[in-house]
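Recall that a protein's primary structure is simply its ordered list of amino acids. Everything else, from secondary elements to tertiary packing, is in principle encoded there. The following example makes that idea concrete.
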Amino acid sequence: MTYAFTLTDVIPASPQAIYDAWLDSRGHTAMTGSKAKMSNKLGDEVSAWDRYIWGKNVVLEPGKRIVQTWRTRKFTDEDPDSKITLTFAPVEGGTQITLDHSGVPDSHTSYEQGGWQQSYFEPMKKYFGKSRPARRKSTRRRPPKRKTTKAKTKKRKSTKRRGRR
């Protein structure tokens, strides 16, 4: 037997930023703090949490929705793949992320009871909430460039010639 549940949260980032980070190996890894192999191509295999979770991209709507099949190492061979659907809606303060997780084996209640929040939503809030360092502008001032006129240049040359003789 399987069950389904829905969770929502607000992440301080744009829908497109979350979508892009989710489907990018480096972004997903940085966002969750654990190694991931992601792809933004339909049908490609994906994995997260150092291959604790794996599946495939089923539906990809840039900035709006991601659907993936998911299994974990805790699934038995008899358990079918579960399916996650992530939808992104802009709201004040960022993006409301809605997670629909279906096909979850009945014995795996930890996903609904804190697993998603601890492994994804809280780390995502930290990742997107930290301020990116601004590019520093140099406070060093350069002296203004001197303008040389042809007359000064000629004078310099003639002075040098006289000094050499």
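Residues 2-129 form a domain with the Alpha-D-Glucose-1,6-Bisphosphate; Chain A, domain 4 fold (CATH 3.30.530.20). Helices lie at 15-22, 25-32, 115-129, 150-164.
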